[in-house]
């Protein structure tokens, strides 16, 4: 997900682009960066910089639908106090899903803001669900006119009036009415001064509406048609902060669940949304007293998890693990511990740390660790993070003196492939940024790469082991690079949806964050965020991930044709003011343009970043450069969208030796060519004590294979190491090369021209 540099002190400050989240990542290359492509995949989006739980009223239906695949039900931002522990996960892929939502229908905001009373209700009922969904975005006076308390009371009363005749489908427009109310609570939460306060009048009206809806016989139908409305109505309970009043709805859905629900994605969603009612109910003052008065909801959760244990390991297993997690969350209350402890212990005994039932065990264990750690021996959950790490990330593999991989299930070939990609990237990045070594006070000389076997394993284990949010596509944890003993790491997972192909999702993107933080960005992550640097931090990670792998960033190139942002506007990007498209697609475009077209400005900017002169860097971007390049950037976008983005930045200067076969430290030979079956030969003098030599070939047409020999001319029949992938992108890292002359060649598997060879050590 492309995540970003984040200090250990606040590991949950991930980025939230959940939203757009995911926005759908692109599955590009063996190590996909955090880009987005056509279809969302598990965990492919970054998460917002939030605490352990988002607490605002849920966002629009479109945003939530996008978040399905992230298996998380968090809202888009955090305003209410954080809740310790993870949020419930969202619906997985087992049930038949409804047709994907089409682009929002064209709507006239004035049709809602200009009407009151029965005319407003009629307008809502006549609108499409997509149209009502757009109202979650209202701001300013439009927000006030649409969602002031009088308007909301009118619509809540309309829900009350239509509910007795609710037919179990949307023929009476119940979904639009429920969604309008949700939009109102959402918009008012973020704009209370504009919309105005909500008081007892609305509380009475919304209770009347929800009471009537849940009393309607057809609200209990197990059908897609009812589920589409019911799922939103369950979320409305939380939006209206009526979590305590409707605990009976939670129990009804959990007790009523059976295999017939599995045929309906919407009904599964409705069941799963009950966990949000519980999860955020803890933030309401009336919630604990309600559970104390009737603790049967605790028995319901325990029974659901126990009776449906067989679902674990399957598409709908999240329903069981969420039940366990929400039961365990009640351990925070001393008054309920005598009741909850044995229920939790029993479920732990019915599950295990690894294997099919792991999601239930780990969720329960996390709750005991958060709320009842002093009694960890009773549960068998002491030393939880260390035990999980040892049991799950059992493979330790040293790629190089600076890179160590901890893996759950990588084969030896996969480890080698990953290591080759990582070690070859160093020289590439150094060639692009032209640094002079690590920034001052940066001791992050090694990195730990933790790789889970799948997105679901990542979501099950990474939070408990590393204390991070897992509603994203991976995370780089920088820590404090000046602190003795600090261990930076990034946490990633295999992209199981592309198997049998092998991908570690976001591998090159996240590794770029490590290199960028060490060689370009002074201090820790927080230091670099005092002024807007996101355009560079995320845009550069995207740029390297795509250009290093020689993959076209089709999503970004398509965005170029939209001309959405001026370059000067992109310099203002932050994680809080931008969506995923602006952060990643447009960050890439801005970085690529600046590196290609204004190298001197970039050198000056990076010089300031490297010393922590954030204000000086900001002045350079917004005053010295300002809007000066906006017109040229706009023209470049047109050309780029048309297929002419220009060449990516050379990553090393040309070698200067008179013999064109001679390579030297950190330089390249360009324009290399050979006809099919022939060679282009090179040699390199390596000084004594060299611990690592990296050789890369790239660019041009045809198919050139890379060969290396320690002691003689390298050929297909005489070599020490080789890289022979399709095309001209080849890379080798040689550990402890011998002092003296070393030999390199490009063999023309197919005649090639325009290639380059780069060496670094």
Sheet-strand content, in percent, reads 5-15%
CATH class membership of the largest domain? Alpha Beta
The number of helical runs is: 30
Radius of gyration from CA coordinates: 28 Å
Report on this model:
With 761 residues, the chain is an alpha/beta fold. The protein folds into three domains: 315 residues, Glutaredoxin (3-Layer(aba) Sandwich); 193 residues, no CATH class; 99 residues, Sandwich (Jelly Rolls). The protein is built from 30 helices and 14 strands. Strands 7, 8, 9, 10, 11, 12, 13 and 14 form an eight-stranded mixed β-sheet that branches. It has a six-stranded mixed β-sheet with strand order 1-5-6-4-3-2. Helix 5 packs across helix 7 and helix 17 runs parallel beside helix 21. The N terminus is likely disordered.
Task: Give me some keywords for this one.
single chain, 761 residues, alpha/beta, Glutaredoxin, Jelly Rolls, 3 domains, 8-stranded mixed β-sheet, 6-stranded mixed β-sheet, 30 helices, disordered N terminus
Write the layout of secondary structure elements.
Elements: E1 5-6, H1 61-66, H2 110-113, H3 117-126, H4 129-133, H5 140-147, H6 149-162, H7 174-190, H8 192-195, H9 200-215, H10 224-239, H11 247-256, H12 265-281, H13 287-293, H14 296-307, H15 318-329, H16 334-349, H17 358-371, H18 376-379, H19 384-392, E2 395-400, E3 403-407, H20 412-433, E4 447-452, H21 455-466, E5 475-477, E6 489-493, H22 507-519, H23 525-528, H24 534-548, H25 554-560, H26 567-570, H27 580-597, H28 599-611, H29 614-625, H30 630-641, E7 662-663, E8 667-674, E9 679-686, E10 692-698, E11 701-709, E12 721-723, E13 730-735, E14 740-760
Helix pairs in contact: 3-6, 5-7, 6-7, 6-9, 7-10, 10-12, 11-12, 11-14, 12-15, 14-15, 14-16, 15-17, 16-17, 17-21, 19-21, 20-22, 22-24, 24-27, 25-27, 25-30, 28-29
């Amino acid at each position: 997900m492309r995540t970003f540099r984040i200090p250990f002190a606040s590991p949950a400050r991930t980025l939230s682009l959940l939203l757009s989240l995911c926005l759908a990542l692109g599955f590009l290359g063996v190590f996909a960066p955090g880009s987005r492509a056509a279809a969302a995949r598990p965990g492919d989006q970054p998460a917002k910089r939030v605490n352990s739980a988002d607490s605002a009223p849920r966002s629009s239906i479109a945003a939530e639908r996008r978040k399905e695949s992230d298996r998380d039900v968090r809202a888009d931002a955090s305003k209410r106090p954080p809740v310790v522990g993870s949020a419930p996960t969202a619906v997985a892929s087992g049930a038949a899903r409804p047709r994907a939502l089409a682009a929002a229908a064209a709507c006239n905001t004035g049709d809602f803001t200009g009407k009151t009373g029965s005319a407003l209700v009629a307008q809502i009922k006549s609108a499409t669900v997509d149209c009502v969904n757009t109202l979650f975005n209202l701001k300013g006076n439009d927000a006030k006119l649409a969602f002031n308390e009088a308007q909301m009371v009118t619509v809540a009363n309309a829900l009350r009036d239509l509910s007795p005749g609710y037919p179990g489908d949307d023929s009476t427009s119940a979904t639009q009415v429920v969604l309008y109310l949700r939009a109102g609570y959402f918009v008012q939460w973020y704009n209370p001064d504009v919309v105005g306060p909500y008081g007892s009048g609305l509380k009475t009206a919304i209770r009347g509406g929800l009471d009537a809806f849940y009393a309607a016989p057809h609200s209990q139908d197990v059908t897609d048609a009812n589920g589409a409305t019911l799922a939103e109505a369950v979320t409305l309970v939380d939006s209206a902060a009526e979590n305590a009043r409707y605990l009976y709805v939670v129990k009804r859905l959990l007790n009523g669940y059976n295999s017939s629900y599995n045929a309906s994605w919407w009904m599964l969603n409705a069941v799963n949304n009950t966990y949000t009612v519980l999860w955020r109910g803890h933030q309401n003052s009336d919630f604990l007293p309600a559970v104390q008065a009737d603790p049967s909801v605790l028995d319901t959760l325990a029974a659901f998890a126990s009776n449906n244990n067989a679902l674990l390991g399957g598409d709908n297993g999240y329903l069981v693990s969420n039940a366990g997690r929400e039961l365990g969350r009640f351990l925070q209350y001393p008054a309920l511990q005598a009741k909850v402890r044995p229920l939790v212990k029993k479920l732990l005994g019915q599950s295990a740390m690894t294997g099919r039932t792991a999601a239930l065990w780990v969720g329960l264990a996390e709750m005991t660790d958060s709320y009842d750690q002093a009694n960890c021996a009773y549960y068998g959950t002491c030393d939880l993070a260390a035990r999980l790490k040892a049991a799950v990330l059992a493979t330790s593999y040293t790629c190089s003196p600076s890179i160590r991989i901890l893996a759950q299930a990588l084969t030896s070939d996969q480890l080698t492939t990953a290591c080759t990609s990582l070690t070859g990237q160093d020289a590439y990045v150094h060639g692009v940024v032209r640094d002079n070594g690590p920034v001052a006070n940066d001791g992050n000389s090694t990195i730990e790469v933790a790789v889970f076997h799948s997105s679901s394993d990542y979501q099950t284990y990474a939070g408990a082991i590393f204390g991070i949010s897992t509603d994203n596509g991976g995370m780089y944890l920088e820590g404090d690079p000046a602190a003795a003993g600090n261990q930076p790491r990034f946490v990633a997972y295999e992209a199981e949806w592309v198997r049998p192909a092998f991908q570690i999702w976001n591998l090159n993107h996240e590794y770029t964050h490590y290199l960028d933080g060490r060689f370009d960005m002074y201090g820790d992550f927080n230091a670099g965020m005092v002024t807007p640097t996101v355009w560079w931090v995320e845009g550069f990670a995207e740029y390297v991930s795509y250009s290093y792998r020689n993959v076209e960033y089709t999503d970004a190139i398509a965005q170029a044709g939209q001309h959405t942002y001026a370059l000067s506007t992109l310099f203002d990007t932050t994680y809080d003011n931008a969506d995923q498209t602006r952060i990643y697609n447009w960050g890439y475009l801005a970085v690529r343009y600046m590196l290609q077209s204004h190298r001197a400005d970039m050198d000056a900017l990076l010089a300031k970043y490297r010393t922590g002169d954030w204000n000086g860097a900001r002045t350079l971007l917004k005053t010295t450069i300002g809007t000066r390049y906006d017109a040229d950037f706009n023209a470049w976008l047109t050309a780029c969208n048309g297929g002419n983005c220009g060449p990516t930045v050379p990553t090393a200067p040309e070698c200067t030796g008179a013999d064109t076969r001679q390579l030297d430290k950190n330089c390249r030979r360009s324009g290399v060519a050979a006809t099919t079956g022939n060679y282009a030969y090179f040699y390199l003098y390596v000084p004594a004590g060299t611990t690592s030599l990296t050789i890369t070939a790239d660019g041009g047409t045809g198919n050139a294979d890379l060969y290396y020999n320690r002691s003689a001319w390298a050929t297909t029949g005489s070599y020490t190491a080789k890289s022979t992938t399709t095309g001209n992108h080849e890379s080798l890292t040689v550990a402890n090369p011998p002092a003296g002359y070393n030999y390199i060649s490009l063999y023309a598997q197919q005649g090639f021209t325009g290639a380059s060879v780069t060496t670094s050590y």
